[in-house]
Amino acid sequence: MTQTLLHVKQLENFIDGKWRAADETTSVINPATGEEVVHVPLSTADDVNEAVGIAKRAQKQWARVPAPQRAEVLYRVGQIMKDRKERLSQLLTMENGKVLEEARGEVQEGIDMAYYMAGEGRRLFGHTTPAELDNKFAMSVRSPVGVVGIITPWNFPIAIATWKSFPAIVAGNAVVWKPATETPIMAYELAKIFEEAGLPAGVVNVVFGSGSTVGEAMVNHEDIRVISFTGSNDTGRGIAAKCGQQLKKVSLEMGGKNAVIVMDDADLDLAADGIVWSAFGTSGQRCTAASRVIVHQSVKAELEEKLLNKMKELSIGNGLDETNKVGPIINKAGLDKIKSYIEIGKNEGAKLLAGGYELTDDELQDGYYFAPTLFTDATPTMRISQEEIFGPVVSLIPVDTFEEAIEVNNGVTYGLSSSIFTADVNRVFRAQRDLDTGIVYVNAGTTGAEIHLPFGGTKGTGNGHRDSGVQALDVFTEWKAVYVDYSGKLQRAQIDVE
After folding, report:
1. Structural domains in the chain?
2. From CA 452, how far away is CA 444, in angstroms rounded?
């Protein structure tokens, strides 16, 4: 299937509209089968320097193209993605492992983002405002920043890239993009789509390679004026520190320790459905995945039973088999991390109700699979209740009151997504006010963000910026204030005139 879908054995960098081979490569492994899919370049700082120089020149011309014309390219990108949706989805599953229905959903996010951001090409609104002096006009407009560096993760290799690149492009910037080496195929395919859609050479450049080499060179390059990063908290903090020293704009979207609150008046069947999807969809490898369930003590036993029954129905295996609902873990390192947290949870005194082990059945033994796992009787301060595991592991934390549930939800270093199941409208409004997260769901799980709303979180999840929605444009533009004085004389603002 690899040859049928991909047609190449080795990927190349995309710089100045041309495909360029690298001296050194590494293998990309299908996490479902352990098979080598393709080779990806391990580029150097020199490759980054070349890409940035090209992008800097291309951006000056691209910024002069009227925004509605820039948007036309994104409309064409969206249409091509729509035409190739099934092929892109299968390639995504092959390199990432997520089940095919989720891969289709991710590609659809990219399609939606193309059309949404293309619409901004006829908006990109500034503001007009009354001037304080006679015969004077005042307004603010958005201006492109210049060259933008985007660094994207393996778990959503095309959706997150579109969240970042599409608003940057429509706003008149040029892009240098470092995808994750685990999942480079979506970057290769999207670069080809940009090319086919008529994006001028040099406006988007893809440089494959490691974070320690390519990512580091991008962060430190003086001509990259924005870094937009999605990934781990530790890496994000390091990027923020380096960008701060350079007075460089940086947008961070990092981890989560997301909770579903289940109150005593909740629809428990609906809550169980939401928890299973949020915790075990994408094998828990989402920054918005539910890894905590904060449940009212009076319904805890009943919810446990419902969850265990639903977990038994989950079919696990290669995501290209549409009967499977849970795919593999991305690699051995991810698997080992999950296994270490199972032991931590046991040692801390949490009760293991289901799962907690690697799956090594004959049909799964060549991939990286972990059984959906449920702990109960966890306390809020346990490490499994505080730290991001990034796998199919969820812990039940019992509480006695709504107020305690809110306190437990907020008592972690992250603040990405939260959810509450309740039939009480008063609790709903208090929860959406008091939950300290960037995303709040009511009677739904912790996943399912839509592209026309801002995506991001509070505290250790990020640094205040947002992907998606019109708010994403704030990352990739600068505000410029413009004053036009048509009085024919010097007028001095804020100066008293007798």
Report:
1. 2-254+462-481 (3.40.605.10), 258-442 (3.40.309.10)
2. 18
Contact 377, 350 (CB under 8 A): yes
d(CA 451, CA 233): 23
Distance CA 483, CA 47 (A): 42
d(CA 453, CA 298): 35
Parallel, antiparallel, or unpaired for β 373-376 and 351-354?
antiparallel
Mean pLDDT of the chain: 97
- For residue 287, indicate whether it is catalytic: yes
Q: Where are the alpha helices (DSSP H) in 136-184?
A: 159-170
- Name the 3-class secondary structure at 384: helix
Q: Is 203 helix (H, G, I), strand (E, B) or coil?
A: coil
Beta strands in 180-246, from DSSP E residues, in sequence order: 204-206, 224-230
pLDDT in tens, 57-85: 999 999 999 999 999 999 999 999 999 99
Biggest distance spanned by C-alpha atoms of the chain: 91
Active site residue 102: no
Pick the closest to residue 290 from 270, 266, 274 (CA basis): 274
Q: Where are the alpha helices (DSSP H) in 121-184?
A: 159-170
Handedness of CA 438, 441, 442, 446 (dihedral sign): negative
Bridge partners of residue 456, in order along the sequence: none
Residue of 243, 287, 304, 388 marked active site: 287
Q: Give per-residue pLDDT as tens, 380-413.
A: 999 999 999 999 999 999 999 999 999 999 999 9
Catalytic residue (choose from 95, 189, 253, 304): 253
CA atoms of 294 and 439, how far apart (whole Å): 17
